[in-house]
């Protein structure tokens, strides 16, 4: 086990989290270590850091990432949306099949049979538009 | 005229009139995975061109249909409400539409009705499909029947941008349908527009022949 400390430089509470994350990821001295770390995770760390600099508690900061499946994300601004997307990316990365996976198939087709399909509870009859 | 509707100065939408060019738009709420689907389909070809002012990301792809090569432009749009005024230019001259929702968020499914209604106001006849994304997160979702697509008689796909399930199949079929539509448009407006363009040409030729038009208000 080795520990490596990567300093965050030139970052203030007014800085752009995504620019900062990208700069860190492409930093000549650190990029080899950060290659496998998703951009969204680095963005998240920067957002938490900036929230802290702006006086937000860690708890409140983390709560802003939490996903509420009922929430209409169309109403969010770019940064709020980035927080939610970052959270979703965690699951995406976990389930992701990459080209270097031995069982990767580019043109993966799966048939889903429909014999005993349940009616979806999302289709309630009260909805005229549907 | 029509081009005011589709006016994005950086983009010449006239090119979509050429035979070997099609435009396919991706619609759906924020964070349903539209860009992730594009990325999975295009792989090494994935070179997004961002027009942030218009909340638009363009992807270029070359497809082979039969023995002909077709240039496909994918218009990946933002779901955020503040970009609603841009929607007319998304729809302008589109040849097919991919509508995406997230099987983990009911609201994104419910909103399909709004996206579809708006699409049909601008493009009443272009081929369209419904895509249920993120099935990797909950495979049981594939046991459910989502009736929206059936009611609107649209093809329906269960896909996962993460593990790749049915992504390539869906895109290939939609490209094929876009090309078919373009060769044989059933949209009344398309035919009218085509007529009008011919009409303009004829008029110009007449003018050049010295037969000045009797409509002095045309400056």
From TrEMBL, chain A:
Transmembrane feature ranges: none
Any one annotated GO CC term: spindle pole
Top-level taxon of the source organism: Eukaryota
Main location as per UniProt: cytoplasm
Cytoplasm in keyword set: yes
Subcellular location, record wording: Cytoplasm, Cytoskeleton, Cilium basal body; Cytoplasm, Cytoskeleton, Microtubule organizing center, Centrosome, Centriole; Cytoplasm, Cytoskeleton, Spindle pole
Keywords: Cell projection, Cilium, Cilium biogenesis/degradation, Cytoplasm, Cytoskeleton
Biological processes, Gene Ontology terms: microtubule anchoring at centrosome; vesicle targeting, trans-Golgi to periciliary membrane compartment
Family affiliation: Belongs to the CEP19 family.
Protein name stated in the entry: Centrosomal protein of 19 kDa
Organism: Crenichthys baileyi
From TrEMBL, chain B:
Upper taxonomic lineage: Eukaryota, Metazoa, Chordata, Craniata, Vertebrata
Protein name: Rab-like protein 2A
Gene, per the UniProt record: RABL2A
Originating organism: Crenichthys baileyi (White River springfish)
Family: Belongs to the small GTPase superfamily. Rab family.
Keyword GTP-binding: yes
Molecular function as annotated in GO: GTP binding; GTPase activity
Keywords recorded for this protein, A-Z: GTP-binding, Nucleotide-binding
GO cellular component terms given for this protein: cilium
PROSITE patterns referenced in this protein's UniProt entry, alphabetically: RAB (PS51419)
One of the GO biological process terms: microtubule-based movement
